[in-house]
Amino acid sequence: MEASSDPIKNNHHYLKACILYEVLQKKPIFESYRNFCNTVGQDAMEYPDFEYWYYRFYHGQMDFDYDRSADPQLKTLVDIPVVSMKKIAESLDAVERTHLRTMNHAIKDVADSFPPVFEKIEITVSKSYLSWSWNDKIYSCFKKGRGYSLCRPDKSRVKNSKKCYIEKGLEYLAPVLKMPNIQVKHFELFFDKQFIDPNDLLAVPFNAKSVYIYGHNMNQMVQYLSAMNPGHLESISLDGEAENFEIIFENDQFKQAKSVEIEASFECLMEDLVHFSHLKKFKCHFLGDHTFEDVPKIRDIISTFERLESCELEYSTVWGNSSMRQFAQALGEEIPIGPLKEVSKRLSLLSSHYRFLHFPTSLDSEKIMEASSDPIKRNHYYLKACILYEVLQKKPIFESYRNFCDTVGQDGMEYPDFEYWYYRFYHGQMDFDYDRSADPMPKTLVDIPVVSMKKIAESLDAIERTHLRTMNHAIKDVADSFPPVFEKIEIKLSEKDLSWSWNDRNYSCNKKGRGYSLCRPDNSIVENSNECYIKKGLEYLIPVLKMPNIQVNHFSLHFDEETFDPNGLLAFPFNAKNIFIYGRKINQVIQPLLAMNPGHLESISIDGMLHTETHHQTLPPR
């Protein structure tokens, strides 16, 4: 059997316990509701009800049995008068107004009464990511395994391990690009061997004044060009590597454009030149057979274009043997005697300026009381409901327990009890009232005989044995009977990160705002927004560096952070054969050096911009 959300869905107290569980994780309400629905079921609770209990708990009102019938009828967005809604819609940008279109017909009509206008929209589609920008707001949705990782303009990230990155990107793109009367000054599409059907992406006709399309399939490029409003589109630019280029000349958008740029990768023939006669401006690359014959023809044909204001032509012969001198002579121009050495090269520079806007909410200023985990901790049914909630999210048990403790509190439940209920629910045993007293007493690690534990400890490496030292005295003695030996240990500390390596296992703990982002040897990432990166790194370092009888062939310390005090970092004495220390203060060099075993240490190397300090410590004799 599998875990089921029915026990939660069928009990309004358990539902509220799960909502409080979401509140305690301090996630935004929309993200919490999405996770709640994905976990318990889309039919578990309507958003207005979820929102009501979310904000009650958020403001510290913990009564699960509160009677809502005494409350006045809640007003919603659809109750706002159309006149007021018009003022609201007017103050929103085009992307924000897309959400109003999903409310009701009256509000949708209000939103659509303001044509969405963009200076520039850019979309790039590749096999590894989909990126887009609305004017200066940039989004990127990366392929990550079978899922995606979405980066939004405020640098926040959303991840999912199951939904396709293109499918997720279209959830943002299509609602905007399919708005009626959308108007874009410049629309840019870049398809790098990955394609999205224009019917899934754009309103037809799509009102863009200028369009740039890069692709590897001319039929696909023409599909997008055909979606443009031919009476509105003025400028076309095409680039890429595609065959059947000539089909562009039959396109209505091409025939009604004022300006066309075709990059050199598309080669036009002499007979194609007549198709450009209606344009005011064009740029293209022509391929000919003989310079002396072709160039005068090009000049004569172009001179008949009545609307033409300017053009830029690149010309080459089939054999590639046309020189600048031949080209000039073919036009009848006088040229100087001697070699023609002048070559001009134009670089088009694109500068981008990104602005990230933050709109503070009044939520924190309104908060009087805070949500508390006490209602969950005091009720074993609510605790079990939260464990089932974790099981339904299909996370590994250690990750689930860590999240459970971070949310409810470290004293919420001991791991063996959490593990027991986790696996009962995982296997579909949903009885919250099951009597555990009938079960045999579970065996734990501390019940393993010392002889067997010795064999286990012998098979572990030095880092893995550090965990055994926290069990009991007998197991700690077993772990310590195997001296930890390292070929090399390196530790580097700066104002932005703390990194270290045990032989070939590399860790890095980076400063991220007020918290940290920890990258482990398996490339897994652990993040926390409140805990200092140095403090987190020391949780990994100290248990290893303070193991008795630790032996290191080469030990390297690099302190590029002035305020860090290394006192207490190492076991005393510390058995290293060779040591390198870089520091900003003399104390950062002296303290680790004093911890070294003078009978064991053979080589010392010191470097750094050491501040002169008065100190009275002396090194022990070697």
From TrEMBL:
Residue ranges constituting the DUF38 domain according to the UniProt record: 205-317
UniProt cross-references to Pfam families, sorted A to Z: FTH, HTH_48
Domain annotation Mos1 transposase HTH: ranges: 13-60, 381-428
Spans through the membrane: none
GO biological process: innate immune response
Name of the protein this chain belongs to: F-box domain-containing protein
Organism: Caenorhabditis nigoni
